[in-house]
Amino acid sequence: MSSMSKKKKKMSGIQRRNTINFYLYISPWLLFFIVLTVYPMLKSLSLAFTDSDFSGKGNFIGLNNFIQAFTVDVQFKAAFRNTICYVLMYVPLSLILSFFLGWLLSRKVKLLGFWRTVFYMPYITSGVAVTILWGWIFNGTYGIINYVLSLFGITGPNWLGDKRLALGCIVVMSLWSLGNQILIMLAGIQDIPDSYYESAQIDGASTIRQVFAITLPLSTPTIFFNLVIGVISAFQLFNQPYILTNGGPVDSTLTVAMVIFRNAFQYGKMGYASCIAWCLFIVIMIFTGIINATQKKWVFYDN
Amino acid sequence: MNKRQMSKTTARRISMTITYIILIVCAVVCIFPFFWMLTTAFKSTAEAYSFPPTFIPKKWLLSNFSNGLQVADFGLFTKNTVFLVLINTIATVFSSAVVAYGFAKFPATGSKFWYTCLMATMMLPAQVTLIPQYLLYFKMGMVDTYWPLIIPSVLGGGAYNIFLYRQFFLSLPQELNEAATIDGANSFQTFIHIMLPAVKPVSMCVGVMSLVFNWNDFYQPLIYLNSTKKFTVAIGLQFLNSSMGTTKIGQMMAVSLTMTIPVLVIFFICQKYFVQGIKMQGIKG
Q1: pTM of the model
Q2: Which of A88, A165, A293, B285 is deepest in the core (most CB within 10 A)?
Q3: Partner B, chain A 200-229, Cβ-Cβ below 8 Å
Q4: Where do the domains of chain A lie?
């Protein structure tokens, strides 16, 4: 009896030490989480209902920010339209392209390391320098793309200066630095056991048939992962349009992240910017929520 | 039978040829922009603005580099960036390892809850926390200093890195821990002398990714840095871009090239760690 209670006491001693150690080790992150994540989230929600200026001080104005955003603000509407357009163009294309190239690389090609390096390079260098470079490539008068088109007798458009094409150009630029997604896809495809393909080959299934019957369904967890990450990051598009077009021409590449940046750091409207940030957050949650709800229908977990 | 076998190998050969053709086209698309940056950087202004363009410069000019790098103080920007990159990389590697060790090795009440919170922050768009974060830093007088760019690295170094480390810590045998405890080491000594060396592969991955991320980072420095003498390379480039646009594209490309080369060098040296990082993600888990 006494030995048991002693054991119990000792157990709880270990448990207590574990708990202390746990909180000690995670304390840096915990501090970040509470002070720089949870508090700012709640704070920006409350700012969204105020007319706060650059100092962060302001009066409660109810739903006025939201009313203004949805009825008066032209930039807000353009930005949401453009951002959603961008997401709907970029995300599906990126998934198709990365699956396709990941699959090609998985076909026991020679020099795999070389291809991997080449495809990954644009991803690793995707900074301001490379964005400026793309601006030059898309240049309407001296750009290399229009030179190539001129060889076929086509007079190329002023890509980034054309309000119907500028957003598409940014999609192309983003697709160029797809390397990371391709390699994630490749790793996923390589994880599929060879035995699956072997039995399909015995049944006489063609290569194309094998892709759609084996590779694609078994890659759906990876595709799902890339889809969620892709949607969340695509909604925050900022760098390329900020650097290349500053939202133009005629607001055709203005994104939500840019409108938040302008309102907060150029116009000093912290309250209004918070309101837009929360609208963005809600839209992202709706999108990821829908994706999550459909998960059961198409994501295939092999276990 | 033999005939069938042959047609099968022919089919395989054709499909592999198509595979290689597509890969080569994609590789050209990936590399060509870099080639274009390189040659434009050496062209005279007149040649850069000629149509049809030349693929190889008629005369390789070095003056674009010397002139372009003098437009703004890129030596200083580079020094600032290197300082930030080094501090952030060291801080990220160490702090994310510490936090991940806590999550992986100490079963405590609430650990599951906090881990869920950690994973949820990966889904959070930066804009939602940005403005109050800025106001906080502003109140503490940290705007236009490097603190807002360093503090997140010190405090956990990002959810994704913690996640990577945790996966690896979980795969280490528990005996490693126990052996050290029997030897009388306290948990922090165990962590420093046994665990940290054991997770070196992850540290390399997190380290190189952090190097590249911090070198390229544009959004945070754009928001927090105002005075020119504190600029990083990325902000300096954008400053140059917005002030001279495409009027001196040769110089623009020369500076861009100079600022891209360090990343490419790191990438070529540490390639294997980038690839390992992708493999380690263990998406299925």
Answers
A1: 0.92
A2: A165
A3: 207, 221-222, 225, 228
A4: 1-47, 67-298
Please name the residues between 60 and 89 in chain A that touch chain B, using a CB distance below 8 Å: none
Token pair in block for residue A111? 């020099």
User: Which segments within A247-295 are labelled E, that is strand?
Assistant: none
Q: Which CATH class is domain A67-298?
A: mainly alpha
Which chain B residue is nearest to residue A201, measuring alpha carbons? B8
Predicted ipTM? Answer: 0.90
d(CA A186, CA B209): 19
CA distance B125 to chain A (A): 7
At B35 the three-state DSSP class reads: helix
Q: Which residue has the tokens 């936090």?
A: B99
Q: What is the DSSP letter of B157?
A: S
The three-state secondary structure class of A165 is coil
Q: Which chain A residues are closer than 8 Å to B132 by Cβ?
A: 39-41, 43-44, 47, 56, 274
pLDDT by 10s per residue, chain A, length 303: 455 555 555 567 888 888 998 999 999 999 999 999 999 999 999 999 999 998 888 899 999 999 999 999 999 999 999 999 999 999 999 999 999 999 999 998 999 999 999 999 999 997 899 999 999 999 988 899 999 999 998 988 999 999 999 999 999 999 999 999 999 999 999 989 989 888 888 888 888 899 999 999 999 999 999 999 999 999 999 999 999 999 989 999 999 999 999 999 999 999 999 999 999 999 999 999 999 999 989 998 765
| Residue from A5, A14, A9 nearest B108 by CA | A14
Record: contact B124-A129, CB cut-off 8 A:
no
Residue A128 in 3-state DSSP?
helix
**Do B273 and B204 touch, CB atoms closer than 8 A?**
yes
Domain ranges (residues) in chain B: 2-62, 72-244
Residue A220, judged by CB atoms within 10 A of its CB (0-12, 13-18, 19+), counts as middle
Q: Å from B109 to nearest chain A CA?
A: 7
Q: Which of B192, B114, B137, B100 is nearest to A33 (CA)?
A: B114
Tell me how far apart the alpha carbons of residues B56 and B43 are, in angstroms, rounded to a whole number.
Answer: 9
Q: Options 3.40.50.720, 3.40.630.30, 3.90.1200.10, 1.10.3720.10; which CATH number does B72-244 get?
A: 1.10.3720.10
Q: Indicate which of B74, B105, B128, B177 best probes the interface with A, i.e. most A CBs within 10 Å of its own CB.
A: B128
Note the residue count of chain B: 285
